[in-house]
Every structure is written in C-alpha cells, then in structure tokens.
Amino acid sequence: MLKPILLTGYLVLASLSVLISAPAQAGQVCNETSFVIEAAKAWRTLAGLAVEGWARIVPGDCTRIGPVTNTEQYLYARSTRAYPGGVREWRGGLDVCVAEDDFAFENITDCDAPGLETRKFRQLGEAETERAILIEPTDFGARAREAGIQRLLQAAGYDINVIDGYAGRRTRRQTAAFERDARRAFGSDRVALIGALHDAALARNAKAGLKICNDAGAPIGAAVARLADEDWQTRGWWRITPGTCARTVSSRLNDNETFIFAWLVKGDILQPLAGGSEPFCIAPSRFTSNIRKNCLNSGFETAQFRATPAPEAGGIDIRLGPDDFEKPTP
C-alpha cells in the first residue's frame, strides 16, 4: 500500500521509485497530479547550494532537473497560474532563493539583495533523488493525464464538476466544446490538448488575484483583508522591497471584498498607508486573523485598511508610492 510522506495543505509529495519496475533515471521528477506544475531543484555543491528552475511538467509526464549528484537534493513545485483557486505548492522546510522566471544560480543566501524570493524546499530521500513523484491525496497514477485535462477544462470555464481521471461522457462533451471554440481537433494527441487548454486557462486566470508593487523607495510590509466563504480574513505580512511586486492573493477577486494596509519602513520609522477607512485587526509579526472587532481583547491592534479598486478579469494591480503613506509626525 502506498503511503504519502508529506502533506502540505491538501497536496502530497511522495516517492514511489521502489515500486517502479522500469530502470530508474537519475534526477527525474514526475507529475501524477491533475495540475500543470513548475518544479525547481536544489543540491549541495562545494561552493554551497545550487538551485535550478522552473521546469514545467504536464500531468502524466516526467522531466530531469539538475545534474546527477550524490549530494543532498531538495525539491519545490508549484502549480501554474492557470487555475482559479490560486497557486498550489509542494514544499518542505528549507528556505531557498528562487527567481520568478527561469533561473539557475549557486551559493546565493541573501534572497533580498538580488531581488529574489524565498521558497521552502523539501529534502529528497535517497530513492527520491533518482525518481520523485508529485501526487495529490487522490492518487491518480496512470489517470493523471485525463485528470489534468478535466482540471484544465474546469479552469478554462467549461462544465466539469468532478476531477477523477476517467474520461466519461461529460468530459468528452466538454472537450468537444473546447475543440469547437478553439477551431481545432486534437484527436488522440492528449499532450497537445493539454497545451491548448493550459493556454486558454492561463489567459482566463493569470491576471486573477491581488498584486502589490512597491514604488515608494523603501521596504513595505503589506497586509490584506478579504471576504472568503462569507467571513473576513486578514493576513500579513508580505515584505516587498523597492521596485518589486508581491502577489498576495492568487484567486479571482470580486467587487468590494478586498482591502489592504501597509507600513512604509524607513529605518525605525513606520509610516502607515493613508486613506484607510475600514478597521481590521493586525499583529506585529506574521499573522492570520478572522477577528475584526475588539482587536485588543484578542491580542491584536486595529489598523485602517484601504479599499482596493474594482478588479479587472478577476485581478487587481496596485502600485504604492511615497504619497500613498502618511507623513511621519515631527
């Protein structure tokens, strides 16, 4: 019986190499999820930690990342932005510097200095260094490709209710609808179908969510309050260095459900975001809160959050400059 070895949210990273009868290929990462994923791998070298990404792997496929090495290896993966529920992650506990686009570098430990981001990589077991398999709690196995098609049909706006990896009547009907819309028949070429569906879903969902950019000339700490499942949730903090952006929400947004707060950090001086009118609870360090009233009684502080503009295509981009913050008190 297969046993998953890491649970992150509701996604699992596991190695099944000991059960594979075919010869193992060093450095392989295989995708048995229903998502198109982007993977990065890190490994120990004499100079430090080398890291390489992003390798895109469609459901049901494998790829090789990095060199063949006997040193410690680490893996991180994320779904692409084609899916409306936001980016899913397969991760661990080691902080590693990564870039947003394709990258390869060695022995970089200060992620902030070159404008990089930090992601948590998981150390691979001895068998996993030859073949690591990304799965979900629903272990699709050989059905991963069909499950991926169903997931992308759903993400592209077609009527798919269940992701099970079985190409039933509804899946065939919605695939035919997509082919009519795309004016192209894919026949048995499932990889080409996945590619076209992914492009369609990415065009529909890639701009979804909330992106905050820092044009203020000093670091920003940002927090977001939004209505989710009929309840308000507040989260912070995202550290955004000057000239960079952070996607603080990945899912599609609706009108009047998202508010932001931020500090402009100039040494020991904190300048709060101006123009806020909605109170939410915040904490000095990283936090998540469903409390909006009586913040002090729950160990929080109250901050005035600013309403965001109306979303376009489910997304909002905000650029914060120095004039967006209150001036420091003399």
Could you characterize the architecture of this molecule?
It is a single chain. The chain is mostly beta strands and 330 residues long. The protein starts with 6 loop residues before the first strand and ends in a 10-residue tail after the last strand. Residues 1-26 have low confidence and may be disordered. The protein has three domains: 7-135, no CATH class; 141-205, no CATH class; 209-324, Immunoglobulin-like (Sandwich), CATH 2.60.40. It is 13% helix and 38% strand. It has helices at residues 144-155, 169-182, 190-205, and strands at residues 7-8, 11-14, 28-31, 37-45, 48-57, 62-64, 73-79, 89-90, 94-98, 103-106, 117-123, 131-135, 209-214, 220-228, 231-240, 245-249, 258-266, 269-272, 278-282, 287-289, 301-307, 315-320. A hairpin with a 2-residue loop joins strand 4 and strand 5 (48-57). It is built from three helices and 22 strands. Strands 4, 5, 7, 8, 9, 10 and 11 form a seven-stranded antiparallel beta sheet that branches.
